[in-house]
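Morning. Coffee machine broken again, so started the prediction first thing and wrote up yesterday's gels while waiting. Chain of 158 residues, entered below exactly as on the submission form.
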Amino acid sequence: MRSFDYAPLYRTTVGFDRLFDMLDNSVRSDWPPYNIEKTGDHDYRITMAIAGFSPDEVELTQHGPELVVIGQKQPEESDRQILHRGMATRDFKQVFKLADYVKVAKATLDNGLLSVDLVREIPEELKPRRIGLVSSSAAAPTQQQQISQDTERQRQVA
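Came back before lunch.
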């Protein structure tokens, strides 16, 4: 198992200590094998090899920042005698930690590959926005301008 030293990151970041602890303590099983890929600026895909599982034997749940994938194989009801079992069909549970605002867009099971498409949707109020500047002289009329505007209104009324 690889070991990374996060000390330099602790020195240059604030508030990420929980993330580094999670990385230190995370232990992933090797089964089922999976890939995580970035497919766009805000799009990701997790692909898991779960040959032999049908869609009703796989459950995906997103609860807050976690995506939980559970596979529970139904017992076979046949009189087959297996001489060698090389394909793993055991139950599994895999938990993926998701970043803020990452949601499951779609999930498909095709030819033994479970593909989970994820998208990061940042709310509009949290996106950067440009704020226009107005000079202080243009924003409020000067005292002389205000007096002349009031005088003009009085003439129009009279």
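The chain has four helices and seven strands. Going to sketch it on the whiteboard this afternoon.
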